[in-house]
Write a structure and sequence with these properties.
Keywords: Bacterial flagellum, Cell projection, Cilium, Flagellum. With 109 residues, this protein is mainly alpha-helical. The protein contains three helices and no strands.
Amino acid sequence: MSQGVQFNRLMLEMRAMQTDAMARVKPEVKTQEVGAPSFSDMLGQAVNKVHETQQVSNQLSSAFEMGQGGIDLTEVMIASQKASVSFQAMTQVRNKLVQAYQDIMQMPV
């Protein structure tokens, strides 16, 4: 009979510890600093800059192909390379973000 009493007492203590532990856990809510850009805003701005770089490259290429004056082949090639490098960098950032997301999703809870 004493083992049954000890078991019940032990279970009551464990439940009390569980409720204490659950009461102590409070989700931390971090507020964003006023004026600080969010990650999604920064990523959106970077994508927009890559898009603008590609548009400038396309406009210079079209103008050069149509024979408009004042546009050198070197200027067109530099703009094209800038667009290419910026797009490749954006693609690598996307790949890293996807990989990080997949790693987080595969973590055991």
